[in-house]
Structures are given as C-alpha cells and as structure tokens.
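Need residues for this backbone.
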C-alpha cells in the first residue's frame, strides 16, 4: 500500500507527542512492507526522525507561512525566494524563537491555514497539491491532525483517494487561541471534516470529546489506541535509591510542571521522604524558559535545588535512560490529555504513573493497570497519592510490572500501524 503522510514538524525543540507518534508509525508501516512517503510541514523533524523524509521538501515552511500571513508581498514571491526561506537549517533556527510553537496570538494564522486555498497561504496549498500530483498516485492520504483539515478538500479533488485524519490533543491548541478565532477555527474544521473519510482517534474519551466539538459522523470515527516503539526499552534491575519523582513532557504551566514541583516540595517535608529526588525533561521554549528558571529559584529558596534536575536533552535514547532512573512518573496536566504517550513510555520502563482523573488518563490507567489516578478537584490529592506510592515501593514495583506487561502486549507501535492500515483498507473496498 502506498500512503502519503502529512506531518507537522516541531524542530525537535520539545517533547512533541504527535511528532514522536507519527515518526514511529511511519517506520512501523515501512517495516510491514508499505510505501509511506512523509511530507513535512512548517518545520523539520527532530533527531528521532533520521531517514524519514530527507528527500522531500518542507512545505508550508514556518517562516513563509508567517510572512504570508502578515504581508501581502510574500503571497506573490517567486519560488526561488520561498526555497531559501524553507531551507531546513533556517527553519531549525526559527523553531528556537519565542512563540513559534505557542497558540496565543496565532488565531488569525491558524484560521487562515484552515481556510486552505481561501486563506493567505493559498500558494502553499497549490504548491503542495501540484507536487503530490507529480508523484506516483497514493492509495490514501493521512493528515497528522485536524489543524491540517484546510488541505483536505484540495487533496481529495486532486488525488481522488481516501483522506484520513488523526485526532490527538488539538483542543489544547485551540483552547489557547483568543476569541473569536477559537470559535471560527472549530467552525472551519467542522466544515472541512465533511470530506474526510475517517478520523483515527487515540482513545474513547477523546472520540467523545471531539464529537462534542465537531459534528463528526459516528461511522467515520475509528478508535485506535496509541502505540509506542518498544525497541530497547529495558526496565531498571532495581528501584532507584534514593527514590526519584519524574516528569516527562513539555516544561510548561498547562501540563502541570509547577504543580508537580510544589508536590515535590511538600513530599520532601515528610521525614520519610527527605532523600527524595526530582528529575524533569521535555524541553522549554520562549516564556517557558523563564518559567523553569522561576521553579528552580523556588526550589532553591526551600533548600532543595541540589535535589532537582531539569534536563535539556530528551531524544529517544535519552528518554529511555531518563525513565529507567525514576521511581514514579507524573504529568499532572491541568486539562487532561487525549492519551498521554509519556504514560506508555514510563510503563514500558517498569515505572508506574500517577495521573489526574481527567481526560483519557483514567481510561489508560484502567486498561494497563500500571498506575494510579487521583482526584484532581482535591487540593492535596496529588501529594497524598504520590506519598502513598513512594512509601510503598513493593506496590509501586507491582504497578510498574503490570504496566510494562500491558504495554508490551497491547500498546506497541506495530499493533497501532497494523490497525491503521486496516482502516485504510476498509476505505478502499
């Protein structure tokens, strides 16, 4: 089967769950014998994606998209100038700039992208479609997320093949867009969704959530649970001593990093946990760099700076080693998540997860048995839940073992790839 997979890049500057998912998915599909061509959008991929799309140009380069949004002149610039602005080294530098991956202030641009050929980036749509028509015709086109739905109509008309779209955590972007653009973006997505043949959703909870926000036909929704690459994921032979509380995600307020730091401070005040350590990784951009600095200063005022580490590197190999160093992982995301890849990554290392009882976390913890959920409405619930688990290492190890067994039996990327290929095939019969 020949598939075109259109994937936004993050430049490798933060723990982008969708980017990691898509790259692993493409590799798994290729391993299973399918011809998958990856088309990168906005920014190049990170270090984990070597060999994925080196010979395919970056479309909708982040610099060009921004300039076309702001200045009419750049909507008519010649292709040679666009190629310079879309150079991968140039885009990687842009990815490090403050605000390039933050939703606040990007409402007009997000809406314009969702308008497709009717938006300010019309020439980018035309260029992408023309390039794809020059390639061998695919059997299906897969959009990485619903923020790319502005492309769906033109792709369908030009290629006459099924168009599939994955849904995972789009609302976390759109909920941070200023009014009225948040509402207008949902309306534009809903209109474009009509031409999509199937939506792949990573959890039952998120399928229900997106069905409330977009009028998705039930027959178009296919729940395919998230999977991860299981290669090289070894559990530590013994629990770390002293115990270590860990965080793996973008280091930002909305994902609860500050909440976890406060919990760590409270836990350290328990004499039985005075040796507890804290480790966090996942990348920080723009204002989040200052936010992390403030958290370090807070730890210092409590005399705990020497017990906490904030790590800059988080590629695949480094994440595996990081997770093996933990006793417990928690990412207390304030609004929940569609699944939480970090939960699967932790469990694959034999590390239990402690998550709030919101979003898909209860669904994932129940399905794996590899962690505990706490009542997010109660002020001290996170601290008390972590405390109970850290003071009972035998129970923590048992949860970690069960989670690891579940991930290796049911949440590998090969299973996810096969399930998605079955969705493709069902649309061609």
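Answer:
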């Amino acid at each position: 089967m020949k598939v075109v997979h259109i994937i936004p890049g993050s430049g490798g500057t933060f723990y982008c769950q969708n980017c990691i998912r898509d790259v692993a998915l493409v590799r798994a599909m290729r391993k299973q014998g399918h011809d998958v061509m990856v088309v990168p959008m906005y920014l190049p991929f990170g270090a984990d994606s070597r060999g994925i799309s080196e010979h395919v140009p970056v479309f909708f380069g982040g610099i060009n998209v921004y300039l076309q949004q702001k200045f009419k002149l750049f909507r008519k610039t010649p292709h040679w100038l666009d190629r310079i602005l879309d150079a991968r080294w140039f885009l990687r530098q842009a990815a490090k700039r403050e605000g390039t991956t933050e939703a606040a202030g990007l409402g007009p641009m997000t809406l314009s992208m969702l308008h497709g050929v009717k938006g300010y980036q019309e020439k980018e749509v035309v260029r992408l479609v023309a390039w794809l028509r020059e390639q061998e015709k695919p059997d299906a086109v897969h959009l990485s997320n619903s923020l790319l739905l502005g492309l769906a109509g033109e792709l369908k008309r030009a290629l006459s093949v099924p168009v599939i779209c994955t849904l995972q955590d789009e609302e976390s972007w759109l909920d941070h867009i200023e009014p009225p653009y948040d509402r207008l973006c949902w309306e534009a997505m809903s209109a474009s969704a009509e031409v999509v043949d199937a939506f792949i959703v990573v959890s039952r909870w998120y399928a229900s959530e997106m069905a409330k926000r977009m009028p998705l036909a039930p027959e178009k929704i296919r729940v395919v649970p998230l999977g991860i690459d299981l290669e090289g994921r070894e559990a530590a032979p013994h629990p770390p001593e002293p115990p270590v509380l860990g965080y793996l995600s973008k280091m930002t307020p909305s994902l609860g990093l500050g909440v976890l730091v406060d919990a760590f401070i409270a836990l350290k005040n328990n004499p039985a946990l005075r040796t507890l350590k804290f480790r966090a990784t996942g990348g920080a951009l723009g204002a989040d760099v200052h936010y992390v600095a403030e958290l370090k200063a807070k730890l210092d005022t409590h005399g705990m700076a020497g017990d906490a580490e904030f790590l800059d590197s988080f590629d695949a190999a480094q994440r595996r080693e990081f997770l093996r160093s933990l006793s417990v992982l928690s990412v207390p995301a304030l609004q929940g998540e569609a699944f939480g890849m970090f939960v699967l990554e932790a469990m694959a290392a034999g590390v239990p997860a402690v998550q709030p009882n919101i979003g898909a976390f209860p669904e994932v913890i129940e399905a794996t048995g590899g962690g505990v959920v706490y009542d997010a409405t109660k002020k001290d619930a996170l601290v008390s839940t972590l405390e109970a688990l850290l003071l009972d290492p035998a129970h923590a190890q048992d949860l970690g073992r069960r989670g690891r067994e579940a991930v290796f039996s049911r949440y590998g990327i090969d299973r996810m790839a096969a399930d998605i290929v079955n969705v493709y095939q069902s649309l061609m019969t």
